[in-house]
Amino acid sequence: MAIQILPPQLANQIAAGEVVERPASVVKELVENSLDAGATRVDIEIDKGGSKLIRIRDNGKGIAKDELALALSRHATSKVHSLDDLEAILSFGFRGEALASISSVARLSLTSKPAEQSEAWQANAAGSQMDVKITPAAHPKGSTIDVVDLFFNTPARRRFLKSDKTEFTHIDEWLKRIAIARTDVHFTLTHNGKLVRQYRPANTEIQYKQRLGQICGRGFAEQALHLSCEHDGLTLSGYLQSPSDTHVTDSCYFYVNGRLVRDRLVNHAVKQAFGRFNIQHQPGYVLMLEIDPHQVDVNVHPAKHEVRFHQNRLVHDFILQALQSVLEQISELTIESEGH
Ligand code: ADP
Ligand code: MG
């Protein structure tokens, strides 16, 4: 006879278990929020592998003063209003959980100024009821989220953190995955006051190759095969490691409508496409699939690493054909040059 509703902080801490595994997951959620807000520049500052400080500053559309408190509460999102919206989702976020979860397991402050507001305001949530305090602040158009002392109140989680170096490596990896898909955005990453990465916006093929080289290695970028295929409303574009490039790479990136996903389907298609080349290693790829959002379900897991295609077979065969057609072109070229 002791059923009780959990206090908000505790409910959020439980939810945090699913999305806030380590500093890198905080960085992922916050950077995705910045991108959802239309930012063209995102600066990430990390201290001590993210356990001391994670600061994300963007030039996105910002949050109005009277919505700051809402942004920090659970199940509050500007991105979905109905089940129909969810079924056609294109934004990264939709669960309205990240800020609430993170602020229940760290000291979070959110400072923001939308373009149409003359001053900036800062919000913090604290205590078991997660009461929000709003204070005046100084900030250009956009938002800054500070996450200080991650897991300070959840010691069991904190103990699971690895060394600063390892945690930072995870952050760096996550940023790579985001930066390779969003070449239009300028990203910087700083660790303990030192600028570690600078990804400048890529508007030309040369700049794009530069970013590809920064992330997948210069060799990969120089030799990679470009592909761009469209069929029946499906589009696949990106780069594929050349069969003549024998470097072992772990650059295997697959995006569905801009969202990085792990999917066996694409690995399978790549393997199958490379079947007739005698290659010992898993070929690298950066592939972007664009598909009608109604044809894919992204709400499979809280961290959104997985998607489900309604027509799995069709998507697989489309990818396979797209890959085969670029690979065919190059094998024709080799046969030609051998013939001459
Ligand atoms: P979700 O992204 O699933 O909507 P979040 O908890 O991550 O949930 O964010 C809650 C809301 O706060 C978002 O829907 C958005 O309206 C607002 N928000 C969060 N971060 C930003 C940001 N960097 N810029 C503008 N708005 C933001
Ligand atoms: Mg979000």
UniProtKB/TrEMBL annotation:
Tree of life domain: Bacteria
Signal peptide: none
Domain DNA mismatch repair protein S5: 212-328
GO MF entries: endonuclease activity
Keywords: DNA damage, DNA repair, Endonuclease, Hydrolase, Nuclease
Family: Belongs to the DNA mismatch repair MutL/HexB family.
Function recorded in the entry: This protein is involved in the repair of mismatches in DNA. It is required for dam-dependent methyl-directed DNA mismatch repair. May act as a 'molecular matchmaker', a protein that promotes the formation of a stable complex between two or more DNA-binding proteins in an ATP-dependent manner without itself being part of a final effector complex.
Protein name: DNA mismatch repair protein MutL
Native source species: Shewanella electrodiphila
Residue numbers of the full-length protein present here: 1 to 340 of 645
